[in-house]
Amino acid sequence: MKVSEKIRLAVKKEKDEKTQIKVGENTFGSQKIVIIAGPCSVESREQVLKAAQGVKKAGAHILRGGAFKPRTLPYSFQGHGLEGLKMLDEARKETGLPIITEALSPEDVELVESYTDIIQIGARNMQNYPLLKKAGRAKKPVLLKRGFAATIEEWLGCAEYILNEGNQEVILCERGIRTFETITRNTLDLSTIPVIKQISHLPIVVDPSHGTGVRSLVNSMSRAAVAAGADGLMIEVHPNPEEALSDGAQSLYPYEFESLMRDIEKVAISVGKSVR
Ligand code: PEP
Ligand code: MN
Fold first, then answer.
1. CB proximity list for 198: less than 8 A, separation 6 or greater
2. For ligand 1, is residue 24 a contact (CB within 6 Å)?
3. 171 forms bridges with which residues in the sheet?
């Protein structure tokens, strides 16, 4: 497999080179599979607290939730912004779970950084170069989602922007790409996992929620991702998906997330890893 020689920082120099990124008590790129879970959007104090308690009880390690939402149409819920960040902060205090949330623009980065434990850069923003540079100067890890029309090389080029500004803590996230398929929201490219493992030292997380767009597919794709060597998973979970303001169809009920945690544990053990 050949990747451009111009990519210097995101690629491995030695076969065993591996970047480990510590967030709270969890290390991306270790034997432990790090599970990020929570709602697509932070909708209310009650909703995010409920979601946080539910995923914590099931064994998740990090709480997700968007305060700034990149939506396909301007009429859809855009997130609560600063108020959403405060709600996440409260959920973190309540549960002890570190949090991850998205920064949509370079102007958001400092505010998001001051609240969050990991800065998320979304698929739509993968090639927002001013945003990548700003995140590259932040002092928090960055989770960089793959753009839905991006090649692996283009994605690594974007990771390179962050690394080149001095931030060495980049976590890659495969979340599905656009293909001719329409039954699923995206096509989850699981071959990315071994490809990234062979050419890059960065940890890779898989998001089967956006990757499939269908609740009933999330469990099997999570198991497959763990079997293929993913360092972590990002799963959307909502206390009441039927009433979600975004991505309800792909969000798990808390009880489904509990089964998922049990199911991936078996796969993790079979590949010499753990989820606890
Ligand atoms: C999200 O994680 O809620 C999100 C908007 O994901 P993506 O950028 O992968 O579409
Ligand atoms: Mn979502």
1. 1, 12
2. no
3. 143
- Of ligand 1's listed atoms, the one at least distance from the Cα of 175 is 9
Nearest residue by C-alpha to atom 6 in ligand 1: 122
Name the residue with the closest Cα to ligand 1, atom 8.
Answer: 122
Cα angle for residues 262, 263, 268 (degrees, 5° grid): 95
Q: Indicate the helix (H) or strand (E) that contains 41.
A: none
Residue among 210, 235, 238, 250 whose CB has most ligand 1 atoms within 8 A, to mutate: 210
81 — alpha (psi -120 to 50), left (phi > 0) or beta? Answer: left
Q: Helix or strand or coil: residue 145?
A: strand
Ligand nearest to the CA of 103: 1
Q: Which residues contact 240 (CB under 8 A, 6 or more apart)?
A: none
Give CA–CA dist 233/35, Å, rounded.
Answer: 5
d(CA 94, CA 202): 31
pLDDT tens digits, one per residue of 104-124: 999 999 999 999 999 999 999
Task: Fill in the amino acid letter for 54.
Answer: G
Length of the chain: 276
Six token digits for residue 155: 């994605």
Interval 203-256: pLDDT, tens: 999 999 999 999 999 999 999 999 999 999 999 999 999 999 999 999 999 999
Helix, strand and coil in the chain, % to nearest 5: 40, 20, 40
Least Cα distance to 67 among 45, 98, 94, 34 occurs for: 45
